[in-house]
């Protein structure tokens, strides 16, 4: 595998290429990444919906969710949180700040489209009907909790999350084999899920899925019976209490990790 200094040199060129992608390619690859990360949420949520023990549910989710990032890496899809590493290319003067911002804005929008479309597909296909609506109720409970987070906590949890996600992307890209890339990306992402940290793209699936499921009366009734507060589950709360502060935290964490790696290893490759 590449060492950290070699990664720095390798990724500075990779980041430059990402800033030059045509709009259509960038958007399509970012929609794919949103779908893949959302699918990690679909699978982990489906498997854990019947687990009453919170620690066990987090462990199982942590074991399953990382496959989304692994497939993102292997397919070359464009993920907003991982692309914060383009800051390495900017610091190395291989890419411009404007180019990085263009990439991140387009990728963020594409990630949202992919994740929200998956959420709609799961709801309207009936995928959430598992166990007489217990899965739908669990999705709405999760979404409701995310909609009432303290913005300061959401910001900090977002920072912690993307420190690990960017570490996972770095370790994956350091691998020279498929197995090496998979193992490198797996552990840091498993840690962020088990730690309960907040990932903006994952939340682009979780909360829209809850919002769409809320529109199905029988599922809403199941959620209310399970103790979910559906009055807080709305788009405004999602934006103000979760998506905006978590996104800001993810950006800070990603840029901090990129700057740390650059400062520690520049000139050593």
Automatic annotation (TrEMBL):
Keywords: Membrane, Transmembrane, Transmembrane helix. InterPro entries: Aquaporin-like, For/NO2_transpt, For/NO2_transpt_CS. It comes from the Bacteria. The keyword Membrane applies. The chain crosses the membrane at residues 26-47, 67-91, 103-126, 154-174, 186-207, 243-265. It is found in: Membrane. It is a multi-pass membrane protein. PROSITE patterns: FORMATE_NITRITE_TP_1. The keyword Glycoprotein does not apply. PANTHER family: FORMATE TRANSPORTER-RELATED, FORMATE_NITRATE FAMILY TRANSPORTER (EUROFUNG). Belongs to the FNT transporter (TC 1.A.16) family. This is Formate/nitrite transporter family protein. It comes from Yanshouia hominis.
